[in-house]
Design goal:
By secondary structure, this protein is mainly α. It is about 60% helix and about 0% strand. The protein is elongated and about 55 Å long.
């Protein structure tokens, strides 16, 4: 549960950091940063939706596989091993672009670090449970598109 708790804490930090005062911003609004931030939010929403629709029967918040689960390698999982974690990382980057402040940067870095840590733990559990996971890991990208 520690992974889920840390993930919720960092997400709450990003929500709290989203509302900085005018003096807290590191730079003023810029149309390009705003457009990229919004585009990343849309991409994150599409990725998390596709991930959830694909994995829905075996979904759980905790990183350990369900006893009755199966390894999902189709749909968006054919390209990304962790589309939901990747979408959280995209949200963190987009929020830094939309609301640039030191608290948001700190919360964003913490959030990405937690999902990377959680994904690595989850991958160890999946490799122990599913013999085909090693081959799958070689072909599908990890969090933030990392190979291997």
């Amino acid at each position: 549960m520690r992974y889920v708790t840390l993930q919720m804490v960092t997400m709450a930090g990003m929500i709290a950091a989203f509302f900085p005062g005018p003096k807290d911003r590191l730079w003023p609004n810029h149309p390009a940063a705003d457009a990229l931030g919004c585009l990343l939010l849309v991409a994150a929403a599409a990725l998390v939706t596709a991930g959830f629709v694909t994995i829905r029967p075996t979904f759980r918040v905790r990183p350990d596989p369900r006893p009755d689960g199966r390894l999902v390698t189709g749909g968006v999982y054919g390209r990304f091993r962790h589309p939901m974690y990747t979408s959280l990382a995209l949200v963190a980057v987009s929020l830094v672009l939309l609301r640039p402040s030191w608290p948001m940067i700190g919360a964003g870095i913490a959030s990405v670090a937690v999902v990377v840590w959680k994904s690595r733990h989850e991958e160890r559990l999946l490799a122990e449970r599913y013999s085909e996971y090693a081959a799958y890991r070689k072909k599908a990208r990890g969090v933030l598109g990392a190979r291997g």
